[in-house]
Amino acid sequence: MLPAAADMHVHLRNAPGPISQLVTPTIRPAGVDVVFVMPNLAPRPVVSVAEALEYKRHLQALDPNVTYLMSLYLHSSVTPDEIRKAKKAGITGVKVITTLKSLITSSHVTNTRHRHTLRALPPTQNGASSHLTPSTTFSRSWRRKASC
């Protein structure tokens, strides 16, 4: 038997709600015990420590045997202080999505408007931010390729 796996990109659509109630109880039986929970864009992005912790409480009520790594969505309302609070509260990441014409939502932001917030993220040993998700890397590389 293989040990449990981690799924580092899970959308549960903001608990409580029908999707989280349907999907969350299937995570552990499917062989996964750690999930990195995306902050979603709908019904609204998770942009505060309080929202992320409430979301986590709902998920833990549905299945306490899963480790939920929570994240915030980098929005214009997220300040460097909120990022620092998130780290202290155990929130694992910040998702950055640059503005893309194919994704139409008022929640998207551009990296240039939020450099001050990104600077608040502590660096890792290799100098990269320890709180940027893989989607951040994709978004930045996509943007560079798109502007070429």
Structural write-up:
By secondary structure, the protein is of the alpha/beta class. The protein has one domain (5-147): TIM Barrel. Helix content is 35%, strand content 14%. The longest helix has 14 residues, at 49-62. The termini are far apart. The relative contact order is 0.14. The model is unreliable at 100-105, 107-112 and 124-148 (pLDDT under 50).
Features:
148 residues; alpha/beta; TIM Barrel; three-stranded parallel β-sheet; two-stranded parallel ribbon; 5 helices; 5 strands; 14% strand; disordered C terminus
Describe the sheet with the most strands: 3 strands, parallel
Helix content range: 25-40%
- What is the CATH fold-level name? TIM Barrel
User: What is the C-level CATH assignment?
Assistant: Alpha Beta
The succession of helices and strands, N to C, reads EHEHEEHEHH
Tell me how many strands there are: 5
